[in-house]
Amino acid sequence: MNSNTGVPSFRSLPRLLVTWFTMAALASSLVVAPAGDAADAENSIFQANQRLGRGVNLGNFLEVPRDQDWGVKIVPDHLATIKQAGFDSIRLPVKWSDYASKVQPYAIEPEFFSRVDRWLDRAEQEKLNVVLNIHHYDQLDTDPDQHVERFRAIWRQIAQRYQSRGPWLYFELDNEPHDKLSSKWNEVLLQGLAAVRESNPTRPVIIGPPNWNGIWALPQLRLPDDPNLIVTVHMYNPHNFTHQGASWSNPEVRSIKDLSWGSKEERAALDKEIQQAADWGKQHSRPIYLGEFGAYSSAPQDSRVRWTRAVVTAAERHQMSWAYWEFGAGFGLYDIQQSQWRQDLLNAVMP
């Protein structure tokens, strides 16, 4: 039994009842509006996406596993630096799963909630929009059937805690669903969304396709009839360029050195991929948020700058909001040790 709702555990119900409970919960949280109101809602979510504007991810920070330190020392004053540089938003990746109980009601530790609170408070002070997500919930990817109830409970707690925050706060259900979650994502996202809608009936919620939020996977995404959804995609192609020399890449990509980018054919391929996302958005009347893109520091710097500028130019041509990956680590726009922007990269994202 789920102690928060009084509804029997999903694992105790046949699949058809699971679907019924999920859809009933989602339907009860949505209001059927007249045609005019529906058009207003559509305009509103596109406007909400535009407010996200130009953003940057606070990566390698709150999404780091509990007992690890990836050496990225982001402090609250960095949000003022981000705002002063002209950014409209930040994306805040958070590994909530390391700070939530493994048994019902899957309570999130108060101390960790308070830690996130402080970042939201400072972002509001700096007038930065925030995309708050679940990041690196690895068990959900590898064993979704066993973790979907916990996923829903985590979102219920986040949504309830932040329901009074202003429209500057956006929720993103899950970063880069992959592995076994990919084939089940359309079912699982309904449950996360239903948990949010219990307390936040109209807040913008960001959802991406399965298979690592790849643009190519957009046709696999099935969304409910909720007018307050933004669709996110990630862009790291060509992968052997953007991830060359990265320690977590496969051995072949890890061994690449000095691979440049910027030929006519490469630029055309990039434009075509961004165009595919834009076309899907138009076809489905959904705004597009490019939630991650970046080229790792091992790539030649002049090519990194060219690639980054090309992605931003293409995204903004299609009225996409975006968030560069990331602020101050291996892809970073900002040199934390030197307390200064890498000006050529900053110029690439702020033309």
From TrEMBL:
Give the record's family classification: Belongs to the glycosyl hydrolase 5 (cellulase A) family.
In the UniProt record, the gene name given for this protein reads celH
**For this chain's UniProt record, which GO biological process terms are given?**
glucan catabolic process
Q: What is its EC number?
A: 3.2.1.4
A single GO CC term for this protein reads: extracellular region
Q: Note the PROSITE patterns from the entry.
A: GLYCOSYL_HYDROL_F5
Q: Which Gene3D superfamilies match?
A: Glycosidases (3.20.20.80)
Q: What name is this protein filed under?
A: Endoglucanase H
